[in-house]
Specification:
By secondary structure, this protein is an alpha/beta fold. It has a single domain, classed as 3-Layer(aba) Sandwich (Rossmann fold). 31% of the residues lie in helices and 27% in strands. Helix 5 packs parallel to helix 6. The radius of gyration is 16 Å and the shape is globular. Bound molecules: S-adenosylmethionine (SAM). The site of S-adenosylmethionine (SAM) has 23 residues, from strand 3 and helix 3.
Amino acid sequence: MPATLDEVHLRHLRELCARRVMIDDEGLRLGDTYVMFFAESALMAEHAAALLGGQHEAHVLEIGLGLGVFAQQIAPLRPARYTAVEPHPAVVDLVAPRVREHLPCPVVVVVEPWQVLDLEPESIDAIMYDTWPPDGQADADFASFVERVAIRVLRPGGRFSFFHSGTQLPKSRADVLDRFFADWSVMKVTIPANRLPSGWTKPTGDFLVPCARKGVQ
Ligand SMILES: C[S@@+](CC[C@H](N)C(=O)[O-])C[C@H]1O[C@@H](n2cnc3c(N)ncnc32)[C@H](O)[C@@H]1O
């Protein structure tokens, strides 16, 4: 069952969708904030490998299309279908054509927030979660997404990954993974300082690439 959108999320989404979308040589800006950089390609390639390595013809779901960097990284892994969920219509208009051109499979873009998503149960092999929640809501949204969406739409044995800046996974995230998945692991990835673009807005060049697997029972 889809989660609901409370007043905090409705206000955040209204404000998000009112932001002007700009793509330049460095990345994607929503209003005056860079939210994704082309310099994150190698990081997104690691997420793609963790999610799709050894899986053929995977049905992939990404929450937050953004700049389409992750989407482009799955191309060599020959997915069977890519579905992106992205509420900002101008992000979709600017980015989806490039993703469609790049991927060797059908591309579906749902122009909605994930909270109203209603996908077939057990229809997805791999999920990448990389969104922009309201301030102070990131952990609650993450837990809600895993419980209400990820576990329902992943097929048994399906994989889940998410964007994580820094070198430590907070206990709250680890607890959610422990509770809902059969097993999980994390890998460290660093974008070297000399590769960070001048407009870099993220707290560090260090990241974790988590990968959790849904149980088969
Ligand atoms: C950091 S970007 C994603 C970058 C993307 N992974 C890539 O590789 O380019 C975050 C995206 O999440 C979108 N977003 C914000 N709230 C969302 C929601 N409730 N559901 C889905 N996407 C959302 C934003 O509009 C933004 O495009």
